[in-house]
Amino acid sequence: MIHNMFNEDLLIKYKALQFKGQHIDSASLPIIINKEKEYEVKEVQKHRKQGRETQYLVHWKGYRNEHDQWIAEIELPHVKEAIKDYWSKILSQNL
Q1: pLDDT score, position 58
Q2: Could you give the dihedral angle defined by the CA atoms of residues 61, 39, 79 and 87, in that order, rounded to the nearest 10 degrees?
Q3: CATH of the domain at 81
Q4: What pLDDT score was predicted for residue 33?
Q5: 28: exposed, middle or buried (Cβ count in 10 Å: 0-12, 13-18, 19+)
Q6: Are 17 and 24 in contact (CB under 8 A)?
Q7: Are residues 55 and 86 in contact, defined by beta-carbon separation less than 8 angstroms?
Q8: Total-model pTM
């Protein structure tokens, strides 16, 4: 299931292709919304507490696992559905 968008400022910068025959996965290209580049969240994979805030490990659509990032919940206002799906999955595993 694919979910919402996220601001590019929190992503790692693009690295140019290094080998002949490599290609860019079009799913990893940003979408322009209100003149800002945004990327799609594929899923939320884990959570952790950092002080008083909850952070989520976000997996980006079209990116490999090494690009996953821990992001504070407050910085994920458009990813509520992915967070809800994550908690549903966690709760169903604990039954």
Answers
A1: 94
A2: 20
A3: 2.40.50.40
A4: 65
A5: middle
A6: yes
A7: no
A8: 0.65
Q: Considering its fold, how many domains does the chain have in total? A: 1
- In angstroms, rounded to a whole number, what is the distance separating the alpha carbons of residues 33 and 42? 18
Three-class secondary structure of residue 65 per DSSP: helix
Element (H, E) at 35: none
Q: How far apart are alpha carbons 46 and 58 in whole angstroms?
A: 8
**Amino acid letter, 46:** K
Domain holding 8, by residue range, is: 3-93
Joined together, the tokens standing for residue 30 give 């940003």
pLDDT digits (tens, 9 = 90+) for 37-83: 777 889 999 999 999 999 999 999 888 888 899 999 998 888 899 99
Q: What is the pLDDT of residue 46?
A: 95
Distance set, CA 39 to CA 13, 64, 76 (Å): 13, 14, 12
H helical segments located in the chain: 80-93
β-pairing verdict for 3-7 and 31-33: unpaired
